[in-house]
User: What shape does this take?
Amino acid sequence: MRFHATTISRVSQLKNRAPLLFQSSQLRSNHQQRCNFGIAFDIDGVVLRGRVPIGGSPQALRRLYGDSGELKVPYLFLTNGGGVPETKRAKELSELLGVNILPSQVVQGHSPFRNLLKKFENELIIATGKGNPALVMSEYGFKKVLSVEEYASYFDSIDPVSQYKRWTTAPLSDRKAPAVPRYDVFSERIKAAFVVSDPVDWGRDIQVLCDILRSGGLPGDAKRDQPPLYFAADDLEYQAAFPSERLGLGAFRIALESIFNRINPKGLEYVSYGKPNPFVFKNAEAILSQLQSSSCVDHSENNGVSGSHPFETLYMIGDNPSVDVNGARQAGHPWFSILTRTGVFRGKDNHAEFPANLVVDTVEEAVDYILRREYNS
Assistant: This one.
């Protein structure tokens, strides 16, 4: 199981023709008349490469704030990445980009896992991925969460090659893992598995997940119905610090599914979140509406009272045609896709299969286009 229009134009050399001070005053003078648009930024390959800002992203984001630092244009970060709580990610982005970013402005691939809290709040679940996947799930309110790393440490020889691994950071077994499991892992079945972010140890995680999924949640037991499996995203590749793209969560899903389907009579069942799932864009629209309520005062329509009203345009700025552009196209109105050339996409012309509404070189050019379009029309 899996979750899975348009004027084409191209801007190749759109530069900021007016000084930033002028544009800030222009934004302030027109703000009362135009408060009906919002922006969603991808992160990797659009505003950052690794931990380095790219494409004039700090300057672009500063233009969305007033002179006193108040948010003037509702925006958020819509990324398939993750592995850390939204609170921590917001703090990191604020430090790297030089603006005050709220946790509510960070929507990661695993953010929709919150919606599964009622179903699994008090059930034993496992989480895997880089960063701290168990902490992520715990902060969402799940009460009984174990990382695959900790869970595997309680089962002797579940990872048959663990003794040959030499990590640059000590494995959990060398970091004083609890001598006695916090939960009765030898009799209590795992009720759901969550792939929160890109796994670090593919071999171990594929082995342990296959054991859990084939046995109905208790490794070593007889084959039973598969417990639910959730992926935070399904990106095959993404742009990181290395010059060429890196394999993403979708690549791990393909590897797991391929192996599982060869050793199990019934195919792997799973649900994938993240872009291009239209649900993610609907969720982003709802969050932007909340930001609109707090940041916008439309005197012309609300008599000076803060409040949200339907967006005329929501801009998705991304670097991956199959994820960012495809998702915005599937979501439909009011989404408008802008493709940058700073990440996965590097083409001279628009993408053939998933053409964006607009192609620009950098995120700074994208924001410049948006503000000119909104305040000069």
Summary: The mean pLDDT is 87. The domain at 111-164+177-272 is CATH 3.40.50.1000 (Rossmann fold). The chain has two domains: 35-50+57-62+72-80+100-108+284-296+309-371, 111-164+177-272.
